[in-house]
Structure formats: C-alpha cells, structure tokens
Amino acid sequence: MLSFRRSRRFLCAIVICTILVIALNGLLNINIHILKYDKNIRYFVDSDNTHRIVNERDNSNEFDNEQTSKIPSSIQDGKKDNFDVNKQIPFNQWSEDSIAENRNILTSNSQSNKKIMKRDDKSVEEIQNIRRNKETLNEFEIPLFDENIFRIYNDEGKTSTLQREEMEVKFPITPTDAIRTFGKYLSPWEQNEIFSYSNIWYLGLDANKTQSHPTAYDNYGFDYSSGAKKGHYKLAIRDHIAYRYEIVRELGMGLQGIVVEAIDHSNNESVALKIVTGNMKSEIYFHRELEIMKFIEANATDLDYFTHLIDYFRFRNHWCLVLELMGPSIGLGAIEDADVMRRYTNDTFHGLYYLHNLNILHSDVKPENIMYIRGKTNQSEGQLLKLVDFGMSCIPGSTDHKCGDYYLQPRFYRSPESILCLPVTTKCDIFSVGVLLVEFIIGFPPFMGNNEVAQLAAMMQVLGFPPAHLIDISQRREVFAAALDFTILNGFHQNPYLRNLNELLEGLNPLLIDLITRCLKWDPKVRITAEEALRHPYLTIN
C-alpha cells in the first residue's frame, strides 16, 4: 500500500513538472516572425504558428489577397485616381479617412508583424538576389521590410531606428514608394502633398520639419507671421524643397525673399535657391526677374558675367528660383590692391556692357549684387565677378518690362535722373558704378542721405549744381529746391562743392580719377558708356 502511494505521488510530480514545462515554454515562445528567403519562396511563421507560403511565381494566394485588400483600390490597379499630380489638396479639405488611406500602404505591413529580427549578412545577400530576379511581382506589392530603415523590438518594448547605409533606397522613387517606405516619417501635409510630384529625389527625413496647421493663416504654418521675417518661408536645415532640393544653409535675406544654398539631389549639384516672400509685391519682382533672366539667357552674346537661371517652380505658395551658386559678394570697404581694383572695375563694366547691349537697366548695382564666381579669390586668374539679382531690372521704353518713374535704385547708389524723375536709360547703372568705385577707394559711399532730399544735397556737396536744363525738365523740382536749403542735424548747410571730387580722390591714379569723373556726370547724355569705359586707358594700359 505504501509503495502504491509513493508511485502515485511520483506520477503526480511528473505530471505537474510536465505542465510547468509546457507553461514555461508557452511564456517564452514570444510571437516572433522569422523571415526566411529561398529564391522564389517566402516562408512565414505567424503568431498562431500557422505557416504561410508565398510563391512569387503565383501571386494569386491567400497572403497577397489579404495584404492587398488593405491597399486603396486605385493603387492595387496601378492607378492614382485619388491623386492628381498637378493638383495639391488644401490642408483644410483633408479628412482623417484620406490620410488614413494613404497610410495603409505602410501600416498594412506593420500591423501584421509585431517583431522583426535583424537579418544576418547571408539573409541580406539572398534578399538582394530575390529583388534582382523579381520579374513577376505586382508593381504595388508591399515589401516585407524597409530597404533603408528597420526597427528592432526588445522584450522591454523599446525600439531603435537603424540606418543601413549599404542598402539605401535608390532615388528617384515614386510618391507611392515614398509613402510605402517612409510614410511613417512624413507629416500629414507631406503625405498628401507628395502626390503632386512625379519623382521624389529627397525627403529630408532627419530635418526638424515645420509643423503645419489646417488654417490659411501664416500660410498653414509654413511662413513667419510677424516681425522682420513676416511672409518669409520658415527654413528647416536639411529639409526638402519640392522633394528634390536639400536646404544646406541660409545665404541672405531681403525684403523680396530669402536665398539658401541647396543640393539638387537629381544631380548632386550645389545651387542657390531663392524663395520669394509670399506677398503680391514680391511676386511682381519675381516675375520681372524671371522674364529678364529668360531674356538674357536667350539673347546675350556672353553669359559669363551673369548668374545663370537653372529652373523655377512654386512650392507651398512661394515662387522659387534655382540659380547658379556663387561665392561671396565683394563686400564693403576700401580696396588697397590696385590690381584687384582694376579687375573689379573690368568685370563690372563687362557685365554692364553685355546687359546694356540688350537695353536692360540692372537698376540695383551695389556691392551685394556683384559676387565672386564660386571658388575664385583675388589670387585667381581670369574673370572674378558676376552680376546677380535682376529683381529690379527693366528695359527703358518697353511696355513689357517697363521701368518705374523713380525709386529705381538703392538710395546711396541712385542716379540724379532717378531722384529728379527724368527719363531713365542704362546710364543710370553707370552712375551707380561711379559711386561704387569711389567706395572702393574711401571705404564708404560718397553720397549718404537718409532721404532723397538729403541724398541730392550730398551729391551737390561733391559734384556741384546740376545743369539748369535738367532742372527745367524735372518733374520733381521741389526736391531740388529743398536740397538747396538742406540743413544737416548739427545745423550746418550742405553747400555745393563743399568738397569736390578731385579733393576726395587726391593722390590716386589720374586715369582712375578721370574714369570716375566720367561716370558721375549729372547729365546722362555726356556720361560714359560701359563700352567706352572698357576702352578707357585705366583698363587698357597696364
């Protein structure tokens, strides 16, 4: 009897141990999808321990039908009925359903797979072989893994995002492929906007992207709403522009827009990208600059002295110009090297010569708009500089590219005819160059007024009285009258000829003084031309 009891206890212990082993095995048997690839067959061990076999030679299987049923029908058919590539859907018209539908391409894969194990090198090689031989797969088949980014989940639920540089996605890709592979990293705005572009070259996934909102105020959140930057596009370094250009750094900002250095990922070239301010006045300047640059590109006999127009487009309600990337501007201050001074003068007049041959008035000649060719320095051989920024350019006498009556030029470089509202010609640029040459010598512009009256008074202080016949035909004689009696802040009058030009330039090369004097003539009819300046002894005699 005792032996029987001991046997029964022993059997019970065995049963209990068996139950514990089974339970422990169940706890340890976490739901892991093991992905194995063998040529054309894909095996899956699902969470319910059922095996799903997908034969790439036969796409009519249970797994594919289950997965593709989650994709919008328009994408299953290889169409984009719901997305017009030439139309952007306003943010405030989006619905949760439309956003969710776009996300299905991504979530349909991630929802059925809880944990993804890291592949070894052999598996990677097998995967690459399969992709090279994948000839019969549907165009919109959902990939089993992200080619560039994948996640590893550990037992604590923590995740880490890894970049596989050796397996980067080859761009360009289609918007559908971009959503499928990178959709979880794109904002809701981008997930709809991206279908307006046929080729996706760059996504800016690691940028600190601007967050949009559904109202039109401040351009759906993409523009600054106040301050000096009001109406300017909010830059995010390393973000994309039009899914092609990568923002590298800001180069400069003005009233009409902001200029950035960018990488064109379609050819890996560095470019300058001018993003125009989102207001009506700036758009007028944009269209003027665009038309002038097109005209120059089509008609100039030498394009080497102007920045090149590469492309233009509209992005998030901002017009954008893609331009040749230049070096720094010549900057402000005096130039001590006589040879550099001569080279600056020569390049500037060459640019104006080819521009004026087309009867184009640049109208914004100043140090900031004369820039080094990229990679050039004062020690480089050959041409150094180019003219940039044609936003204020016009063609005198033209109806299509009409010049304004006045306020054509920046104040310190403004010609007398701009101030007195006289007929404008390309000679306005020559006066600006004369001012610029004096600035190269003394380190600052010779005429510096805080308004037009003060500016004209400063001109008369150095150049004397303007000819009487110019005042007679002026439409702004009151400006001249006020300048005659102009008093500066300390109570002194700015009398004409208080310091004449020869005294200002005393001790310089007489040939340079003569060239400057010819540039700063009151009467544009007797002012030197760019062609004559290039033949002047200062530039022809070494």
What does this structure look like?
- Residues 27-160 have low confidence and may be disordered.
- Helix 4 (96-110) crosses helix 6 and helix 11 (427-442) packs antiparallel against helix 16.
- The protein folds into three domains: 36-196, no CATH class; 217-324, Orthogonal Bundle (Transferase(Phosphotransferase), domain 1); 338-540, Transferase(Phosphotransferase) domain 1 (Transferase(Phosphotransferase), domain 1).
- It has helices at 2-28, 62-68, 73-76, 96-110, 121-132, 175-182, 188-193, 280-299, 338-356, 416-419, 427-442, 452-463, 468-473, 477-484, 501-504, 510-519, 530-534, 537-540; strands at 36-38, 41-45, 51-55, 149-153, 159-163, 240-241, 245-254, 257-264, 269-276, 309-315, 318-324, 370-372, 385-387.
- The longest helix has 27 residues, at 2-28.
- By secondary structure, it is α+β, with helices and mostly antiparallel strands.
- 35% of the residues lie in helices and 13% in strands.
- The protein is built from 18 helices and 13 strands.
Protein traits:
Transferase(Phosphotransferase), domain 1; 13 strands; single chain; 35% helix; 18 helices; three-stranded antiparallel sheet; 542 residues; alpha+beta; six-stranded antiparallel sheet
Summarize the structure.
With 542 residues, the protein is an alpha+beta fold. The protein has 18 helices and 13 strands.
